[in-house]
Amino acid sequence: MKTEQITIDFKIGIHSRPAALLVKKVRSYPDSKITFGHNGKNSRGDSLIGLLQLGITEGAQMSVNVDGGDEETVLADIVAFIKNDVAREG
Fold first, then answer.
1. What is the CATH number of the domain that holds 33?
2. Considering 1, 7, 15, 63, which one is annotated as catalytic?
3. pLDDT tens, 45-79?
4. Range 67-72, long-range pairs (CB < 8 A, 24+ positions)
């Protein structure tokens, strides 16, 4: 398993629209188990409700965890997606 901690530095954090984009991206990696964590809670990456329940706001530390598949490549792609594409929605 590969893990990276990132800081959510966009204004609103991960609300419904950015969460939906992120879930869609995660689902594009069916061979990988992707989870997110925040404040001791974890959520499957393909669960919109689970991701929203993490309550990830601006300035929050979030863990991105990838297990299976090409872990390093998938992790780098998901992190870049959050920092670039998801941030534009936040």
1. 3.30.1340.10
2. 15
3. 999 999 999 999 999 999 999 999 899 999 999 99
4. 67/1, 67/2, 67/32, 67/33, 67/34, 67/35, 68/31, 68/32, 68/33, 69/29, 69/31, 69/32, 70/32, 71/1, 71/2, 71/32, 72/2
